Amino acid sequence: MTNVVLSYILIIAGVVVWAALLPGRKHVPEKVMQYVTVFGGAFLFASCFINLVPHMFLGEGEARFVTPECHFKIAAAVMIGFLIQLFLEHLTKGVEHGHNHCACCNEQAEELQEHQHHEHHHHDGSCHREGVHPVTGLMIGLCIHAFLEGMPLVDGADGDIHQGLLYGIVLHNIPIALVMVSLFMVNGYSFMKSLTLLALFAVMTPLGSLCNLYLLPQEEVLQSLVMGVVVGILLHVSVSILFDHDHNRFSYAKLALILVAFVAAYFTPGCPEIYPTF
């Protein structure tokens, strides 16, 4: 149980710590953001196949889900997760990729960097139809995303943490938190309001894990389906990151980052049944 609590603390601290960027109006260089995002995306992609997919097809002990019916259900769960993330990106504007696809918000962010000495300069959200505040959809989409990806974080049968998923979530949350900080600044949010919203996003992953542990039956097929939905979500995010037009220019630095991420995911403790030496 101690490992579970420490994992929750790591996830929450990994998001909220970026609140330190708010009052100082510091900005992470774009190149660094791209490298962190690409590394996180590649790590998620590799973790899905090395650590997470095997769990979907493993039962207790030596049991294996080998029936065609179970295989079909798990495959369907992956596709459902993919579609769920496709819908969520309509709300988040691609923040899961490490940047915001809303052109108007990006324009306002650039203006803010050029006019930081004007205390009352902020984005009023007027570029969005029907007066919907840009952060509203962002928070709804990101909270659902974080809640779902946290559900299979802890194995209810033995209390083990899926470490590949844990580290992938932490890496994945860094660029998300930075984009959220930028959008909060653009909209002129106070430090406390920004910190509250960041904290809300941070606790959704542990909340999803706890809901799965205590509200859903710890039945192998059901838990494999939950993992399948999350794998579909993570595959959509990771593939979108690696093939995003903003990161799509080939470079040896990007290739090296992807290779390092693949190796790191391989050596991350995963399925003890498959990798007994790790």
Main attributes of the structure:
278 residues; mainly alpha; globular
Topology:
Layout: H1 2-16, H2 21-24, H3 30-56, H4 68-92, H5 103-114, H6 134-150, H7 163-186, H8 191-215, H9 220-242, H10 252-266
Helix pairs in contact: 1-7, 1-8, 3-7, 3-9, 3-10, 4-6, 4-9, 5-7, 6-8, 6-9
Q: Which residues form runs of ≥5 with pLDDT under 50?
A: 116-132
Mean pLDDT: 78
Our estimate of the beta-strand percent is under 5%
Alpha-beta classification: mainly alpha
User: Outline, from the CA principal axes?
Assistant: globular
The number of strands is 0
Number of domains: 1
SSE run? HHHHHHHHHH
Helix content: 55-70%
Cα-atom radius of gyration: 19 Å
How would you characterize the overall build of this protein?
The protein has helices at 2-16, 21-24, 30-56, 68-92, 103-114, 134-150, 163-186, 191-215, 220-242, 252-266. With 278 residues, the protein is an all-alpha fold. Helix 1 packs antiparallel against helix 8 (191-215). Residues 116-132 have low confidence and may be disordered.
